Amino acid sequence: MALQRVDNIVGMLMDGLKQMNLHKCLNIIFISDHGMEAGSCRKTAYLNSYLDDVQDFIVIPGPAARLRPNNVPDEYFSFNYEGIVRNLTCIEPNQPFKAYMKQLLPKRFHYSYNDRIEPLTFYLDSQWQLARKPLEIKSCTGGFHGSDNRFPSMQAIFIGFGPGFKFRTQVDPFENIEVYNLMCDLLDLKPAPNNGTHGRLNHLLRNPVYTPHHPKETSHPSECSVVGQRVFSVSLGCSCRTGVSTEIVQVVEADVCVVFRVETLENPVFTCWFCSPLLLVSKSNLAWG
């Protein structure tokens, strides 16, 4: 029903532009700020099913639920958020949510330094919502949004039409923060400082007006300092044919060196280092052999 209404409105717009002979002169952008997900009562988690006492706090329900104490502002900073996080960690297999102190969430969420976001937040699996009690969820049916924007269901729509855009061109997804610079280029305006990357969407335009200038590399890449300083004088007893069990510790942030605890048949335990500019893994067991 909603799509039919949008289609009718767009049809009226295009018909009006054709009547004024403007349909080939204007650049038009159709865009949304988020996607939508179908709600389900079977995919709603309630904290009173996981904790014995839920009377000392309230929860802002939804797919990105947040928790705060009842006594605000007196207990806002002294409340035992960490204790609740510990009590909600790995309670059951396939648990659909994880409780995080907001500064430990991936930086791409931009939650750490936002005063309007409570210290304790919940990261939920796709299609899931969370509330304190069943009666406190707004609606477990219908549609909702607010999940991780990397979920396919949360991706927005973008359609560009007009003399400034390439014709019948499909591109990879991009972030909405890039659209402002694009519109400024179409209007021949100098964009104000913003979080987008000017020129990031040049591949959408027939005649880009801005050419970004990237810094030149002046030195050769260097080895990871941790790996470069470790010289193994003995065999670690590890090969592609050896049964290896590896446990990865939980890592939620980027730009880290991760320690792998490795057990082999020949060597009971040794430690490996892995350096990565971007890593997002959860605790898991991997096996090769």
UniProtKB/TrEMBL annotation:
GO terms for molecular function: dinucleotide phosphatase activity; phosphodiesterase I activity. One of its GO terms (cellular component) is cell surface. One of its GO terms (biological process) is regulation of bone mineralization. Gene3D superfamilies: Alkaline Phosphatase, subunit A. Pfam families: Phosphodiest (PF01663). InterPro entries: Alkaline_phosphatase_core_sf (IPR017850), Phosphodiest/P_Trfase (IPR002591). This is Ectonucleotide pyrophosphatase/phosphodiesterase 1. The lineage of its organism: Eukaryota, Metazoa, Chordata, Craniata, Vertebrata.
